[in-house]
Specification:
Helix content is 46%, strand content 26%. It has 227 residues and is α+β, with helices and mostly antiparallel strands. The chain folds into 2 domains: 128 residues, Jelly Rolls; 80 residues, Winged helix-like DNA-binding domain superfamily/Winged helix DNA-binding domain (Arc Repressor Mutant, subunit A). The strands form 3 sheets. The protein has a 4-stranded antiparallel β-sheet. It has a 4-stranded antiparallel β-sheet with strand order 2-7-4-5. Strand 11 and strand 12 form a beta hairpin. Helix 4 packs across helix 5 and helix 5 runs antiparallel to helix 6. The longest helix has 27 residues. The chain is globular, with a radius of gyration of 18 Å. The termini are far apart. It binds adenosine-3',5'-cyclic-monophosphate.
């Protein structure tokens, strides 16, 4: 078994496929590496490929006409992106930038659509992931429209916990928290508000900050407080 086939086994949308299909997929795609900060996709470009993250981290964002950025999410190992333009034939819905050196596995549109047709389990897994993303987007809309500063910052921490956090005995550890300006661009607030709110959370014992590492000390309680 090739190391790429090995990797595909851990990609949720491909996990239920038999060995020989994984071997086939490993041959239809290509690997490409992107340096930190390089642009992988641009909002409004035409799109014809799906990307799976072999290793690394990417930032998904949109920019307003006056240059302000809103960060929709970060994706990491085994996540995929680029499916939207493939599925609806429209332009790319967001810009994707490597926020770390990243290696991506790229599948062309027709090959991916054939996979969906031939393997309903891939289609179902894809729908499950898209549903998860819609739930996260709904939570963000609620947070932006109804919540105060603490609620907005908490929503972003919960999103990061879900996307890149590791849970151990009720504590979620986020190894590398994005920069405060990036957190602000995720929460729809200012960098100052992020700084003030994180310190207030730390004072209340809700989180522990250590450089760029953040721990949510009681994940269940934190979710209940801010859901
Ligand atoms: P596409 O529109 O082809 O190109 C940009 C990609 O960013 C998009 O496909 C999705 O894969 C991804 N994307 C856009 N919005 C979100 C979101 N809210 N959460 C996660 N991924 C997203």
């Amino acid at each position: 078994m090739s190391s790429l086939t090995d990797f595909l086994l851990y990609v949720p949308i491909f996990a239920d496929l038999p060995q020989e299909t994984l071997e086939k997929i490993s041959k239809i795609g290509t690997n490409r590496t992107y340096k930190k900060d390089s642009v992988i996709l641009m909002e409004e470009d035409a799109g014809s490929a799906l990307f799976v993250i072999v290793r690394g981290k990417v930032k998904i964002s949109r920019t307003s006409n006056d240059g302000r950025e809103v960060i929709l999410t970060y994706l990491t190992d085994s996540d995929f992106f680029g499916e939207m333009a493939i599925l609806d034939g429209m332009t790319r819905s967001a810009t994707v930038i490597a926020s770390e050196d990243s290696e991506l596995f790229i599948i062309q549109r027709d090959d991916f659509l054939n996979l969906l047709k031939d393997h309903p389990e891939v289609s179902i897994a894809l729908l499950q992931e898209l549903t998860k993303r819609l739930r996260a987007a709904d939570m963000k809309i609620k947070s932006l429209s109804l919540k105060d500063a603490e609620g907005k910052v908490a929503t972003v921490l919960l999103q990061l916990a879900d996307d890149i956090g590791v849970i151990k005995q009720g504590i979620v550890e986020i190894e590398k928290l994005p920069l405060q300006q990036d957190l602000a661009n995720m929460a729809g607030t200012s960098r100052e508000t992020i700084s003030r709110t994180l310190h207030s959370f730390a004072k209340k014992g809700l989180v522990e900050l250590d450089g760029s590492k953040l721990k949510i000390m009681n994940y269940e309680q934190f979710k209940e407080l801010f859901a």
